Every structure is written in structure tokens, then in C-alpha cells.
Amino acid sequence: MTKTETPASAILHRDTRFVPKKAIGGKGSYIFLEDGTKFLDSTGGAAVSCLGHSHEQVNQAIKDQVDQISYCHSAFFGTQAAEDLAQFLVDSTGGKMSKLYVVSSGSEAVEAALKLARQYFLELPTPQPQRTRFIARLPSYHGITLGALAAGGHVLRRQPFEPLLAKNTSHVSPCYAYRGKWDDESDADYVARLAAELDAEFQRVGPENVCAFIAEPVVGAALGCVPAVSGYFPAMKAVCEKYDALFILDEVMSGMGRCGTLHAWEQEGIVPDIQTIGKALGGGYAPVSGVLIGDSIVQTMDKGTGVFRHGQTYQGHPVSCAAALAVQKTIQEESLLANVRAMGAYLEKQLRQRLGAHPYVGDIRGKGLFWGIELVKDKATKEPFDPKTHLSFLVQEKGLHPEHAISLYGCVGTVDGVRGDHIVLAPPYNVSAGEIDLIVDRTARVLADVFAGLK
Ligand code: PLP
């Protein structure tokens, strides 16, 4: 379907002039479309479908929960489904986090995390009401609602709404070795430079005014899977601790196994004070996200008012909780984290072999089953393509054509005013080596097709 053949639709689609084809089924790594196309879902949507589609065990758990009870308001009643999910997730942190707050989307989880950080300082025995500021990174993405958008540093998504966004977040550089690290600079020196920048930002806004620093363990939608260099997160956390500010990790995209450990922080040598989770929490079987909360915050709230001044109609939704628990149990029972690590290493190898020498592939980076490809016009200078080319979206759109039939998540990252093009791959945790071969082959073909069209 091209944009000129658009049928009528009462839905306000993302692109108002383009009605996407309908998905009528799904199994494993594939989505079946109404026109008969068998579509390779190599991104799990946006790093969501961690078990692929239509996993029997999860489907059954959802049906069982609906038969029992599908909704009750959390102000009146709790449910076993929500209790079981919370216990499972708290246990999964080895007791490092002590409570779970369940909502529906990543944006809502981030909103709750920001408000919790603020309220924590109000609940301290000596309250610190002046703590109203956040420090985040540019680029970053923390969600689309106004609070989360204001915290994030996704230039393109912020731009039309800039006048509506609260001005209490400032941004520092991300850890982005491909463009940010100087030639001949060691990882340790790079980390020290970024820690000094964060420290200087605390000083600039007044350390006593900062609630929290928020970061993604691997920058996802805003920069195409950029992991930090070793030692980065401990250095950032040390700066936060120096000023008694909280450290929030937004693991909505990179957490719940996506990077090869259930929690991305397990590989970073730190534990956040607050952690947001989403996407692979429920694997797309239900809209579900959460906030994992460290004990000192929980204790402070308990001894303070004992009331989190935040609440939503669908929080702790039993069907979402049952779906999420079934997804998480399946990941455990089928030893899928080991497969994420093994297939992730295989995906990296295949990407480097097939695309490493590609004239327009500037960087290939990632972790686990979360890989990004940065496309550049000039490999030597790292000059990006003209933004008017909309390259990453051309790639995403080309992938949708039936002759390619692969999802390639295009994203745009703006660093120091320079806009770059990135492609994200995020296959399901139960992906096979054969499917990885197919993903890499189709990706290479899509790129060849797109660049042929640009000549
Ligand atoms: N935080 C991060 C790191 C994300 O990647 C996203 C979505 O991509 C969000 C928050 C927002 O999640 P949602 O789209 O479910 O609201």
C-alpha cells in the first residue's frame, strides 16, 4: 500500500495520510498481514515482543485471569495477580528493590518515578521542598506524556510541544563513545570527563535543588542502542550520592532481559534508587509497566505520610499483571536469558560480517538482543545524511514492503544539533540462529535497496 492508495479509516494513525496494513495473526517471530505477507518482526514492535507472538502459556494465563476477575479498582481491592507479580519482580532483584508500582505504559512509569522522587524529599524527617529539578541526558527518551517528555532529551519529539514542557530538567551529554569520546581518550578518562560534566551541572543548578538524575542503561529510541562504556554508571551514581540526589534508571526499553540480564543494571555494578520497567515486562501481551523502588524510599514514605500522592484507574490491573508474570516465568523456565546472550553474540557477529564494511554503516553497537546501526554519509568524518533525506524512516518504510517484510525500527538522534539516523533491531528472546540469519540478510537487502534509490 502506498500513501496515495490510502483507504479510509476512522483511526487517527501516527501518519494521518497513511493507514497501515492490518495484522491478522502472529506466531513466534512472525506477524501475518491481511494481504498474505509473512512479516519478520525483528524488532518486536519497539523492543516489546520478547517472547514473540502467541505464546501458549501466556495466552492461557490471560484467559485464566479474565475468567477469575478482569478488573477491580486498586483503591478498594488488591488481587493475587498483582501480589504475585510484585513478589516475583522484587525477588528478581535479590532484594535490592523492595516494592513494585504497576501501571500501563513506560511513559506512565516514568511519570510515577519522577513524582516519587519528588515526594521522597518531601517525606524526609527534614523535608527538602526545594528539590524540584531533574538532570537527564541529551539525547534520551523517557516517554511521550508531558512530564516524561520534559525529562527526556528527544529533540524531534519535544520540538512541537517545547512551550508546554516544564523547565525543571536540564540535560548533560550521554555516554556515546562513537561520537563523544575523543581520539586516544581512554574509557576511564571519558568517564571522568562525563562525571565532571554532571558534577558541574549539579553545581550550576544548585545541588540542593536536584531530585534525581535519570538515564537509560542503553539509549534506545533516541539514539539507536548505545550502551555506556565500562565504569560510566558507577561514576554517575557517585556524583548523585555526593549530592544526596536519587539515581533513576529508565529500563523501559533495555530492561527485563533485553540486554542479557533481567535488569540491565546487573551488568553495570550499580543499583538504582528507582527503576522503571515496561515493554518486555509484558512482552506486548498486555499494556503493563512498573516502577521498582528501593527500600530507603519505601521506608521514608512509610514513616512519612504513608501515601504516594499518585494513582491511576488501571494501576495494578490484574490481567496485565497475570500476563506479565506469565511472560517473566516463561523467560525463566525456558532459560531465555542464556539465549539472549548467545543469539545476541551471534547477531553482533553476523551484523559486523555482513555490514561492518558497508560504506554507509558508521557504527554497530548494542547489548544482548538490542542492536543499533548508525548510518552515515561519510564513514571517515562520521558526517550524517542530510536530515531532509529522512533516511532512517526510509529504511523503516522500505522494510515494510512485501518483498522485504521485515521490521526495522528507524530512529533519529540529535547530538550537538547534528541529526543522525539509526536503525534498531530487537528480536524476541527465543529467536533461533536461522531467524538471525534471515534478519541480517533482509536488513542488508533493505539497506541496499534504499541506497540504490538515493543515487
Ligand atoms: N522510557 C524509555 C527508555 C523508552 O524507550 C520508552 C518508549 O520507547 C518510554 C520510556 C515510554 O514508553 P511507552 O511508549 O510505553 O509510554
From TrEMBL:
Keywords: Pyridoxal phosphate. InterPro entries: Aminotrans_3, PyrdxlP-dep_Trfase, PyrdxlP-dep_Trfase_major, PyrdxlP-dep_Trfase_small. One of its GO terms (molecular function) is transaminase activity. This is Uncharacterized protein. The keyword Cell cycle does not apply. It comes from Penicillium alfredii. Its cofactor is pyridoxal 5'-phosphate. Belongs to the class-III pyridoxal-phosphate-dependent aminotransferase family. It comes from the Eukaryota. It holds the Pfam family Aminotran_3. CDD domains: OAT_like (cd00610). GO terms for cellular component: cytosol.
